[in-house]
Amino acid sequence: NAGVTQTPKFRILKIGQSMTLQCTQDMNHNYMYWYRQDPGMGLKLIYYSVGAGITDKGEVPNGYNVSRSTTEDFPLRLELAAPSQTSVYFCASSKGVAGNEQFFGPGTRLTVL
Amino acid sequence: DAKTTQPPSMDCAEGRAANLPCNHSTISGNEYVYWYRQIHSQGPQYIIHGLKNNETNEMASLIITEDRKSSTLILPHATLRDTAVYYCIVNLWSNFGNEKLTFGTGTRLTIIP
């Protein structure tokens, strides 16, 4: 199993541009998550999904959109990028069983200039 | 969700046991204690979790006090590869899963050769 994969690894955007961060998992997990991590800080939940077609907001959803059309994929869309969105983005997945752990991808480092 | 308090940094000699404390004095009866770690800029890695009883797996042991207000993660024989930021997370398992993981700033553990 590849686990959780994310593309791209690095990206530089100009203010106002848009992009999609890709996340795929091959563990047949129902639950998927997007986090952001600012320098020196812990992770903050942006959006999560408990299954295909079902998504919900986390702690910091403003400026982002998600969709979940398949079990495997959970893309994160940034519209009108702003410097405040400069961060490292992590995707994660889990089985969705009580006490079960989350598996994280390697992250996407995004810089908005 | 209950908050956690961890020391910002700790050192441990290689080969010795690393004991990482965590205070969660406002934890409720159905909240789990999770430990994750993040090595350099990688995605967080699950270590262990528990509810009431002490737990052990191939990576670590988790000791939870009887009143559940604090816990200790024990890495029995620390190696240089255990140098990382360790996050203690208290999480309420809801009907929709563990989507509410809240990462603080953790403890930066440095293993000294």
* Distance between the first and last residues' Cα of chain B: 38 Å
Overall body shape of chain A = globular
The residue fraction in helices of chain A comes out at under 10%
Percent in helix of chain B: under 10%
- Cα-to-Cα separation, first versus last residue of chain A: 36 Å
The number of helices of chain A is: 0
Describe the structure.
The complex is a heterodimer of chains A (113) and B (113). Chain A is mostly beta strands. Chain A contains no helices and eleven strands. In chain A, strands 2, 4, 5, 6, 9, 10 and 11 form a seven-stranded mixed sheet that branches. By secondary structure, chain B is mainly β. In chain B, 0% of the residues lie in helices and 46% in strands. In chain B, the strands form two sheets. Chain B has a five-stranded mixed sheet, with no helix packed on it. In chain B, strands 2-7-6-5 form a four-stranded antiparallel sheet, with no helix packed on it. The N and C termini of chain B lie far apart (38 Å). The interface between A and B is medium-sized, with 32 and 23 residues.
Which keywords apply here?
heterodimer, A: 113 residues, four-stranded antiparallel beta sheet, 0% helix, 50% strand, B: 113 residues
How does the SSE layout of this entry go?
The complex is a heterodimer of chains A (113) and B (113).
Chain A: E1 4-7, E2 10-13, E3 19-25, E4 31-37, E5 43-51, E6 54-57, E7 64-66, E8 76-78, E9 87-94, E10 103-104, E11 108-112
Chain B: E1 9-13, E2 18-23, E3 31-38, E4 45-50, E5 55-56, E6 61-64, E7 70-75, E8 84-92, E9 107-112
Summarize the structure.
The complex is a heterodimer of chains A (113) and B (113). With 113 residues, chain A is mainly beta.
